[in-house]
Q: What sequence folds into this?
């Protein structure tokens, strides 16, 4: 009696949700019963693409191969042969490998796959060639359709973004189904604007915003969390732009809820918060956790530099507070100060002061900030020239096209080799099977390297473009802030300072160091680094 191992596989989320594996299992078990065989093992794969994922990366396939090596079964049974895989450069040879080990390969629908003649090999290869081609065509059709819909400004389906509603506009899709379009939900759009306003103007972080929204807009259907707020702050749909991969739609003003400036500001503030959190994470240890919670202040604290000022001796954050003083006449008054709790307790070897005069520090900082604004105003033209030079030197668009062309050329060569393999199997080629297989393997390796290089080039181009846009935005912002800073109120000044300053340190002699998020020197260094990355990237190209 033959011993059977069954393999079940579903590749898409829809199939996983529908749980198609029980159907495959039922069909295979019925088939085993009709053949009088014995089931000795079952392997299942959920959400695994037989086209995109190689056999070596599929745990079920590798386990079955090990079982075949030790002679644990006689028949490998699948519902249909494409459950084994759809890679035409791999799966036919996988089937051939099992057969060479004395394993019969069966499908409940298509019968036994044999390798007794050249015709059998040809049929085996053509089957997976067709399956792979169909998978590739289907994937490309879906991608193309989605890209075209996004480029046309149409909603391509899925869950609606918060702030919008789905409406019928008369569009009809496949199977005569009515398609939806997006429109602004006036009630929810108020909340979206409140989120952006709270984040960029009221100094609220994502956790505070989540608590605020849950208390001010309570709903049994919507519980706000920091991650959902981050998703909103980074989704370009709120400026009227849909996306699909690297494709972006033209701006649809009918879908705009926030301004471009507010959207860019939100990304800028987010980057600053991440940078600051990363650089100060090590300042707070377990022994100081409670104190840190007590002394933590926002940029809207009692003093102008709250949240920015640090002790130069111990690195601890200075907290804005007040000293109570008594005049000669007995009258009490309050003097604003910045306090270092490590300095007060002489903890962690801090030899700095306990308190620092807020007026003295703030006066010095404001003088430096005015110099900073003046410096940028005078250097703006030079910055723009440098930025244009970088864009020309970078030439990422040309490099991207070259990488895409190289990959396309390799894929065309691989296709010709597959066609030549068919001729080999039909006895019409000057090459033998092993030579073609070797050439296919080499070409596949080259394709994988080309794909990796293309991915790297795309990532570099996107990263550089993002950095350039951020730099441009920062410079424009700094230029605008310089013109309004002196007329701004205290809260507005705090926000501006928080956007341009990473941190400020002061020592007991009132030596002050200000670390800006962006300087002209930083910009020039960024350009030099990009130039080096370009050279490294081009040197690593192996196609």
A:
């Amino acid at each position: 009696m033959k011993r059977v191992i069954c393999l079940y596989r579903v590749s898409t989320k829809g199939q996983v949700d529908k749980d198609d594996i029980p159907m495959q299992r039922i069909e295979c078990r019925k088939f085993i019963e009709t053949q009088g065989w014995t089931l000795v093992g079952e392997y299942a794969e959920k959400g695994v693409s037989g086209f995109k994922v190689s056999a070596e990366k599929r745990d079920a396939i590798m386990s079955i191969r090990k079982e075949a090596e030790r002679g644990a079964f006689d028949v490998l049974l699948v519902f249909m042969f494409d459950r084994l895989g759809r890679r035409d450069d791999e799966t036919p040879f996988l089937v051939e490998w099992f057969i060479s080990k004395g394993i019969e390969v069966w499908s409940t629908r298509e019968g036994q796959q044999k390798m007794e003649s050249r015709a059998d090999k040809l049929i085996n290869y053509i089957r997976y060639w067709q399956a792979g081609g169909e998978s590739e065509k289907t994937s490309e059709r879906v991608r193309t359709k989605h890209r075209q819909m996004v480029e046309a400004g149409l909603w391509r389906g899925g869950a609606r973004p918060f702030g919008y509603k789905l409406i019928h506009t008369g569009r009809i899709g496949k199977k005569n189904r009515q398609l939806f379009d997006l429109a602004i939900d006036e009630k929810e759009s108020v909340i979206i604007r409140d989120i952006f306003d709270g984040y960029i103007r009221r100094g609220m972080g994502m956790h505070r915003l989540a608590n605020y929204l849950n208390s001010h807009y309570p709903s049994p259907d919507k519980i706000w969390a920091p991650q959902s707020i981050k998703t909103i702050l980074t989704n370009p749909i709120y400026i009227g732009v849909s996306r699909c991969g690297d494709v972006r739609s033209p701006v649809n003003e009918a879908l705009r809820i926030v301004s471009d400036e507010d959207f860019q500001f939100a990304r800028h503030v987010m980057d600053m918060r991440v940078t600051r959190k990363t650089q100060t994470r090590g300042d707070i240890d377990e022994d100081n956790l409670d104190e840190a919670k007590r002394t933590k202040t926002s940029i809207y604290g009692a003093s102008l530099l709250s949240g920015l000022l640090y002790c130069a001796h111990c690195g601890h954050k200075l907290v804005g507070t007040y000293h109570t003083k008594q005049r000669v006449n007995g009258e009490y008054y309050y003097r604003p100060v910045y306090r270092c709790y490590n300095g007060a307790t002489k903890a962690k070897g801090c030899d700095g002061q306990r308190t620092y005069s807020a007026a003295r520090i703030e006066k010095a900082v404001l003088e430096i900030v005015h110099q900073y604004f003046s410096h940028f105003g005078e250097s703006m033209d030079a910055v723009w020239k440098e930025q244009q030079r970088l864009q020309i030197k970078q030439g990422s668009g040309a490099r991207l096209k070259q990488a895409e062309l190289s990959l396309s050329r390799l894929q065309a060569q691989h296709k010709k080799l597959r066609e030549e393999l068919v001729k080999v199997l039909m006895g019409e080629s000057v090459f033998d099977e092993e030579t073609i297989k070797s050439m296919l393997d080499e070409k596949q390796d080259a394709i994988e390297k080309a794909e990796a290089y293309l991915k790297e080039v795309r990532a570099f181009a996107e990263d550089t473009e993002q950095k350039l846009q951020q730099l441009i935005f920062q410079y424009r912002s700094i230029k605008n802030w310089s013109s309004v800073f002196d007329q701004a109120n205290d809260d507005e000044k705090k926000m501006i300072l928080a956007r341009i300053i990473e941190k400020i340190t002061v020592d007991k002699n009132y030596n002050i160091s200000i670390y800006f998020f962006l300087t002209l020197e930083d910009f020039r260094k960024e350009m030099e680094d990009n130039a080096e990355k370009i050279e490294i990237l081009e040197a690593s190209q192996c196609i």
